[in-house]
Design brief:
The protein has helices at about 10, 65-85, and strands at about 20-30, 35-40, 50-55, 55-65, 85-90. By secondary structure, it is an alpha+beta fold.
Length: about 90
């Protein structure tokens, strides 16, 4: 693990088993019968995670130190899914 690697210390620690205190829906995208949903999950001092699910099944959840970084990550994911042909929910 290199000192220049900002993720090395984080990745070497086991994930915490913190139950989110609350959630905040961000967006839902659809393409035909398929849908992608994103919500923020607040973990108190452990940060905020952006959770993406496809058809109700969690695809991935990525934790960030602040809400702002989690929202920026989610916005980038939304743009990527829009580029794949998904459309915003009305």
């Amino acid at each position: 693990m290199s000192a220049d690697d900002p993720y090395g210390a984080v990745l070497s620690q086991p994930p915490s088993r913190v139950v989110p205190s609350r959630t905040e829906p961000l967006f839902v995208l659809r393409r035909g019968d398929a849908w992608i949903a994103c919500e923020l999950r607040y973990h108190g001092e452990h940060g905020v995670s952006a959770c993406l699910s496809r058809n109700g099944i969690v695809v991935f959840e990525y934790r960030h130190p602040t809400r702002e970084r989690a929202v920026a990550f989610a916005e980038a994911e939304r743009e990527a899914w829009l580029a794949r042909g998904y459309e915003r929910e009305p």
